[in-house]
Amino acid sequence: MEINVKVLFARMIFVLFAVALAGCAGQTRSLIPEDSDPFLTTGLFKHDGLVGDLMLLEFEGKRFEARGFAIQQNQSLNELRRRFGGGKHYDKIESGVDTDHYEYSAQPELHAADGTTLRCRMTWQMNISPKGYCVTTAGVRLYFRFE
């Protein structure tokens, strides 16, 4: 059997491109109005992308935005060992093969054009929607949840 090097090379490039694109695409999530404070009219949260993390909220006619904030990734192996025991499932978690049990959190500070801020906290897991709250400069808590 003769191997066409050009075809093989083209397929390898295609596969590498597809893997890179899938790994860098990130997730964009929209605000769920029914599960959020009624004063928050629009919201967007993007994470794991090439451009960096982004959170936008519209409150009282102002657009608040944060970019490039830190996202923490945590995993309590002791808690997971108690829950799943020491079998195959736990071994996959411990080795990093099963990533569904990571907990993520962020504390972005969103800024409006006029200088006002919203200090936010949120948490989520792999298949669970990000949710949390923001605190206005007046101390009012605004709860939110993204898709």
SS element count, helices: 3
Cα distance, first to last residue? 51 Å
- Nearest-integer average pLDDT: 79
* Content of β-strand: 35-45%
Write down the secondary-structure element order: HEEEEEHHEEEEE
Quaternary = single chain
Radius of gyration using CA atoms only:
20 Å
Q: How is the topology of this model organized?
A:
Layout: H1 5-24, E1 27-30, E2 40-47, E3 54-59, E4 62-67, E5 71-74, H2 77-84, H3 88-95, E6 103-106, E7 109-111, E8 117-125, E9 128-135, E10 141-145
Antiparallel strand pairs: 1-2, 2-3, 3-4, 5-6, 6-8, 7-8, 8-9, 9-10
Helix pairs in contact: 2-3
Task: Write a structural description.
With 147 residues, this protein is α+β, with helices and mostly antiparallel strands. The chain has a domain at 26-70 and 107-145. The protein contains three helices and ten strands, in the order αβββββααβββββ. It has helices spanning 5-24, 77-84, 88-95; strands at residues 27-30, 40-47, 54-59, 62-67, 71-74, 103-106, 109-111, 117-125, 128-135, 141-145. Strands 5, 6, 7, 8, 9 and 10 form a six-stranded antiparallel sheet that branches. Strands 1-2-3-4 form a four-stranded antiparallel sheet, with no helix packed on it. Helix 2 runs antiparallel to helix 3 (88-95). It is elongated.
